[in-house]
Specification:
Its cofactor is heme. It holds the Pfam family p450. Keywords: Heme, Iron, Metal-binding, Monooxygenase, Oxidoreductase, Zinc, Zinc-finger. This protein is α+β, with helices and mostly antiparallel strands and about 575 residues long. The longest helix has about 30 residues, at about 360-390. Helices cover about 40% and strands about 10% of the residues. Bound molecules: protoporphyrin IX containing FE.
Length: about 575
C-alpha cells in the first residue's frame, strides 16, 4: 500500500510486494517499487535520498491528478534518462489539494503560541522532527511553510525558485524601505531584477570588491592598533565591540565615503539608528499576523516608533545623498575615491538602461549597510568563539597563517593574495557558519503563484522559511553534527557559499541568494588572518575553554548573546 495515496500495489500493473529503493549511501530514496520493478510508488514525497541528497535519477514522476481519480497508475516513458530502457509506472497522490502536515492550531493565533520560549530556528527544528521536513504553520492568519530537508530546500531555492522568489511585505519593511523599493525586501519583479543587476554588476562585483582594498586595509590597521593598545595596557579586549566598530566603519567608508566615528557622538548615532532598525525588523507587529488587532500597534506606541525611526533614517540618508551631490557639483569626486553612493548617483550616466528613483537609491544604500555590517561582525564573533573553545583548531590555523605569511615578513596587514593559500582558515570559517548560520531561517520567501513543494500544494501568498540552521545540524546529514570539526571541509569541493549542496546554506542560494559573498569572503579572511597572525588569544581570569558559552541572541542576524571578551597577547614573529 502506498503510504501517501493508499493505493495498493495491485492498482499499478506491476504486482504485489513493495520494496523500498536504496541509495548508494544506503539511505532510503523514499520510493517503493514492487518486486518485479514495474510499478513505482512515491512513499514520502521525496525525489532525492534524504541522507545524501542524491537524485533518484531513473525514476519518472508523473504528476497527474488522474492517477488518483481513476485509481490506477499511469504508464510513462522516461525520456530524460539515457540509461533508462523502458516504461515506469508511477503513482503519486494528486498534488493539487494536499497541504503539508501541520501541528494543531488554536483559534485566531494559529500556531503562534508554539513559537515562544526559545529561538525560532530551534523550535522549528523540533517541530519539523515531528511533522516532517515540509511543515505548514499558521502564524496568526499567515500560512507559513517551514522547509528543513535538502530536497525540499533545493525545490524552493533552485528548481521552483521563480515561484518562491518574492519576499513578503510587512508593516516595518514597507514603512522603512519606502514601500519595499529596495533589493533585500523588494517583491520579485522587473524593479527587483534591475536592483539585483545593479548590486551584482556595479556595487559588489569582483572588481569593485578589489577596489575597496585600501579601505579594508586601513580599517584592519586601526583594528590591530586598538587591540595592541589594550594588550599594552594589560586590558582584556572586548572582541565584540572592536569588531562591530570595524565592520560598521568599513561599510560606512565603502558605502558612504567616510566613517562617522571620528565625529563626536555622530558615530554612535549612526550605529544606534541601525540598531533600532534591526530591532524593529524582528519585532512582532500584530497588524501583520492578526490584522483586526492592528489597532493595538497604534495604542502601544509601536506605530509611532516605526514612524520616528523611518523619519530619522530618511533624514540621515537624504543628508548623505545631498553631501555627495554637492561634492559632485564641486568636482571633488574622482573615479579613485568613488563610494557606493557616488556610483549609484552616476549610474544613469554610464548605463542608459538604468532608471533609479531616489527611493531605490536610499533602499540600496540601506541594503549595503544592513546586509554587510551585522553579518560580517557576527561571523567573526562565532569563528573566534569556536577557535577559543577548540585549542587544537586554533593552533592549527595559526600555524597555517604564520607559515603562509613567513616569519621574516614585516608587514602589519597581510597581502590579500596570500589568503588564497589559507585552506584551513577557510575550512574554519565554513565550519563556524555550518554550526552558526547567522541568518538561520534565511530571509522569508513568499509563493507568488499557486505551486507545489515535494508533492504538496502551496497556495499563492504562503510564506516559506528555509531552516538553514536545522540543515547544518541534522545528524542524518552530517557526521558528528554538533561537533566543531573544520577538517570536514578540507580537501573537498562539494560545498561552497553559493549553495552548491543544499545541506549547507549560510548565504542562501538561487536568485535571492546573498549577492555580497565576494565582499564577505575577503573581509572575513583578512580580519581573521590578521587577528590570528599578530595575537595569541586566551580567556580572561583563568576561565577554561569549555566554560565559554555559545548562547545565541535574538535578532534577525544571530550573534552571541553575551559579548566576547578575550585577552590578546602580541605574538613576536620578528
Ligand atoms: C558573513 C557575511 C554574510 C552572510 C552570512 C550573509 C547571508 C545572507 C543570507 C542568508 C541572505 C538571504 C538569502 C536567501 O534568502 O536565500 C542574504 C541576502 C542578502 N545579502 Fe548577505 N550575507 C553576508 C554578507 C553580505 C554583504 C557583505 C552584503 C553587501 C554588502 C550582503 C548583502 C545582501 C543582500 C543585498 C541580500 C538580499 C538579496 C536579495 O534579496 O536579492 N550580504 N545574505
Amino acid at each position: 500500500m502506498c503510504r501517501i495515496c493508499h493505493l495498493s500495489s495491485r492498482s499499478g500493473e506491476g504486482g504485489s510486494e513493495l520494496i523500498l529503493l536504496g541509495c548508494h549511501c544506503k539511505g532510503e530514496l523514499g520510493f517503493a517499487h514492487c518486486h518485479c520493478a514495474e510499478a513505482w510508488f512515491m512513499v514520502k514525497g521525496n525525489r532525492c535520498c534524504e541522507i545524501c541528497g542524491a537524485n533518484a535519477e531513473n525514476i519518472t514522476i508523473v504528476i497527474d491528478s488522474r492517477v488518483l481519480e481513476e485509481g490506477h497508475a499511469r504508464r510513462e516513458l522516461n525520456t530524460q534518462n539515457p540509461h533508462d530502457n523502458g516504461e515506469r509506472i508511477v503513482c503519486w497522490k494528486s498534488p493539487t489539494h494536499l497541504l503539508p502536515p501541520s501541528p494543531p492550531t488554536l483559534p485566531v493565533i494559529g500556531n503562534l503560541h508554539q513559537l515562544s520560549g526559545s529561538l525560532p530556528h530551534r523550535i522549528l527544528q523540533e517541530l519539523s522532527a515531528k511533522y516532517g521536513p515540509v511543515m505548514l504553520l499558521h502564524l496568526g492568519s499567515v500560512p507559513t511553510v517551514i522547509v528543513s530537508s535538502p530536497p525540499a530546500a533545493e525545490e524552493v531555492l533552485k528548481s521552483r525558485d521563480v515561484a518562491f522568489a518574492s519576499r513578503p511585505h510587512t508593516t516595518v519593511t514597507h514603512r522603512l524601505f519606502f514601500g519595499n523599493q529596495d533589493l533585500i525586501f523588494g517583491k520579485y519583479g522587473k524593479q527587483w531584477r534591475q536592483l539585483r543587476r545593479i548590486a551584482t554588476v556595479h556595487l559588489l562585483s569582483h572588481t569593485r570588491v578589489l577596489s575597496f582594498r585600501p579601505a579594508r586595509q586601513a580599517e584592519v590597521a586601526l583594528l590591530v592598533a586598538d587591540i595592541r593598545s589594550a594588550a599594552a595596557a594589560s586590558r582584556p579586549v572586548n572582541v565584540s565591540d572592536v569588531i562591530i566598530e570595524f565592520t560598521s566603519n568599513f561599510i560606512c567608508r565603502v558605502a558612504l565615503g567616510r566613517t562617522y566615528s571620528e565625529e563626536k557622538g555622530e558615530g554612535s548615532k549612526v550605529n544606534k539608528l541601525f540598531d533600532e532598525i534591526t530591532a524593529l525588523l524582528v519585532a512582532f507587529p500584530l497588524r501583520d499576523y492578526i490584522p483586526w488587532l492592528g489597532w493595538i500597534d497604534r495604542l502601544n506606541g509601536f506605530d509611532y516608533k516605526v514612524k520616528k525611526v523611518a523619519l530619522e533614517f530618511d533624514t540621515f540618508i537624504e543628508q548623505v545623498i545631498q553631501e555627495h551631490i554637492n561634492m559632485r557639483n564641486r568636482n571633488e569626486r574622482t573615479h579613485n575615491n568613488e563610494d557606493l553612493v557616488d556610483i549609484l548617483l552616476s549610474l544613469g550616466d554610464v548605463d542608459s538602461s538604468v532608471s533609479l528613483s531616489q527611493e531605490n537609491i536610499k533602499g540600496l544604500i540601506f541594503d549595503m549597510f544592513g546586509g554587510g555590517t551585522d553579518t560580517t561582525f557576527a561571523t567573526i564573533e562565532w569563528v573566534m568563539t569556536e577557535l577559543i573553545r577548540h585549542p587544537n583548531a586554533m593552533r592549527r590555523v595559526q600555524e597555517e597563517i604564520r607559515g603562509v605569511v613567513g616569519a621574516e615578513a614585516k608587514e602589519e596587514i597581510i597581502g590579500e593574495e596570500k589568503l588564497e593559500e589559507m585552506k584551513y582558515l577557510r575550512a574554519v570559517i565554513m565550519e563556524a557558519l555550518r554550526l552558526h548560520p547567522i541568518v538561520p531561517l534565511l530571509l522569508p520567501r513568499e509563493a507568488s503563484v499557486d505551486t507545489q513543494l515535494q508533492g504538496y500544494h502551496i497556495p499563492k501568498g504562503t510564506r516559506v522559511l528555509v531552516n538553514a540552521w536545522a540543515l547544518g545540524r541534522d545528524p542524518k546529514l552530517w557526521d558528528k553534527a554538533d561537533e566543531f570539526s573544520p577538517e570536514r571541509f578540507l580537501n573537498t569541493c562539494a560545498f561552497d557559499f553559493k549553495g552548491k549542496d543544499f545541506r549547507y546554506l549560510p548565504f542562501g542560494a538561487g536568485r535571492r541568494g546573498c549577492p555580497g559573498i565576494g565582499m564577505a569572503e575577503v573581509t572575513l579572511e583578512l580580519v581573521l588572518a590578521t587577528l590570528l597572525l599578530h595575537f595569541d588569544w586566551e580567556l580572561p581570569d583563568g576561565m577554561r575553554a569549555e566554560e565559554l558559552d555559545a548562547d545565541e541572541g535574538h535578532a534577525i542576524v544571530i550573534h552571541r548573546k553575551s559579548k566576547l571578551v578575550l585577552v590578546a597577547k602580541p605574538c613576536r614573529r620578528h
